[in-house]
Amino acid sequence: MRRFLARLGEALLTVWLLASLCFVLLRAAPGGPFDTEKSAPPEVQAALEAKYRLDRALPAQYAAWLGDVARGDLGPSFQYPDYTVNQLVAQALPVSLLNGGLALLLALLVGVPLGIWSAMRAGSWLDRLFMLFAGLGLAVPKFVVAPLLVLLFAVTLHWLPAGGWGEWTNVVLPAIALALPNLAYCARLARASMLDVRHAEYLAAARARGLSETRLLFAHALKPALLPVVAWLSPALINIVTGSAVVEQVFGIPGMGRYFVQGALNRDYTLVLGVVLVVGVLIVAINAIVDLMRAQMDPRLRDSVA
């Protein structure tokens, strides 16, 4: 119980530090949410600043915002005056979760079998060809992959829409664009892990007892080979979260990444802080879940996460 409370305290401290750093950096950036090419009358500017508490000193703004967050209120949006940040996050979060979840699922369902298949044929021309394509998948960034997918499947072949949201076809290209780099890394990681496990002494002993390669794979080699893949889920999630900002902009998806980019460009302080706070909580929660999964798969780790 004490260790659980300590880990919970560490998680809360991490989220608080992340949000506080973002608060300071936003205020330090030049410009403001109501700066325009043609300045508004002074009384209008003063009324706007008073409405959004921008006329207060920076510590007072921070204390007021922190108090609102403690009550579950992320504040009003500067860019979307008819909506609160809570409402915008409630609309955007399911979109990003669906897109990111499908991308991660695709990376795992395709990457892990491909990596294991390649490890079982290590040194063959198929293995070398696979490693070549995996390297290309890692080298090409998402802001290149996404437009190429649009050009091929939407513009040239007319199989899928180039953007938008609302139909199941709108999910395909964004999920693939998010998944490809992670799929390549997952496959390479699964291959390297399986190669290490195949040369373990306990597998050599089991093989000497006459067990088939199929039984060796599924009964003895697969579980330890998947441990590095499970540990990789945390950085994979961060990769998907950061990549979603680019992908959602390219495909015009109303997700968290797009709101973050638009909020940053328009100095919508509360919207950016709300997105950072929600994403930070999600990452901390996923890290905890991944630790629990690793502990269930490897008993040696149970004392460290209990």
TrEMBL record:
Pfam families in alphabetical order: BPD_transp_1
Sequence intervals crossing the membrane: 97-117, 129-159, 171-190, 225-251, 271-290
Keywords for this protein: Cell membrane, Membrane, Transmembrane, Transmembrane helix, Transport
Gene3D superfamilies: MetI-like
PROSITE patterns recorded: ABC_TM1
Residues annotated as domain ABC transmembrane type-1: 93-294
InterPro entries named among the record's database cross-references: MetI-like (IPR000515), MetI-like_sf (IPR035906)
Keyword Transmembrane helix tagged: yes
CDD domains: TM_PBP2
UniProt subcellular location: Cell membrane
Membrane topology: Multi-pass membrane protein
Main location group: membrane
Similarity comment text for this entry: Belongs to the binding-protein-dependent transport system permease family.
Name of this chain's protein: ABC transporter permease subunit
